[in-house]
Prior knowledge:
Elements: H1 11-54, E1 58-61, E2 70-73, H2 74-85, H3 99-115, H4 121-127, E3 136-141, E4 150-155, H5 162-172, H6 185-194, H7 218-230, H8 243-249
Antiparallel strand pairs: 1-2, 3-4
Protein name: Reverse transcriptase domain-containing protein
Organism: Rotaria magnacalcarata
Amino acid sequence: LDERISYNLTPEQLCLATKLRKVCDKFRQHARKSISRYKKEIDPIVKTLKNLSKDKTIYITRPDKGRAVIILERSDYLIKMEQILNEPKTFKQLDEDPTIQKEDKLQRKLLRLKSIGFLTDSEYKFTRPAGSQHGKAYGLPKIDKDGVPLRSIISACGTFNDKLSKLLANKLKYLRAGPTIVIDTFKFVKELQNLKLNTTNIKMVPFDIISLFTRVPLARTIDLILDKMYEPTHTCSFSELKRADLWRIHPIPQC
């Protein structure tokens, strides 16, 4: 029904409504002024960033640790990356992209593992690769080092074994639990604060490991993981397969 709505407000309610209206109007005025002032301050910054993004002689990135914006000479960045990629013990040049072949090989391997019950149906669907891409290499500057060397990063997002590695990491995460494992720096600081030590007689010494991952023997690493999975006090969380069966199904690469 189209009826006329009438409001019968008391004098006190009308007074409060008037005050509320004035407060709202004042808030809108302050908001407009703040937006205008902010726009005047931010516009030059946005313009500068756009100009920097168009400059092909520089490379804009972040440091390997902490939060900051780093601007490097693109030529210097490319030279340092070429030095990293030309390291024969870590990288080698291929004549063709093996991504499709590796994807097909892993698909067949996963299907076989599913058929023998090593993988569940949901795990198989999650890890089965499709439309894979090759990994991408880039470098993050170590701004605390002389000469600003680069820390090489290989992004595996979208690679043929990306989801398989995520599944494996999730299954092995229980092995990382221990009294000497610290989750992050905040936890580390809290642990230090709870220690009752005479700090005058104690010094903290950091150890910097260079190229840790590329120096870890793969076969030895897998062997250590199996030791943890199959030691007498643990039961393998993957399946009921014995360690010997696991070795037979998944041959360990030799270094």
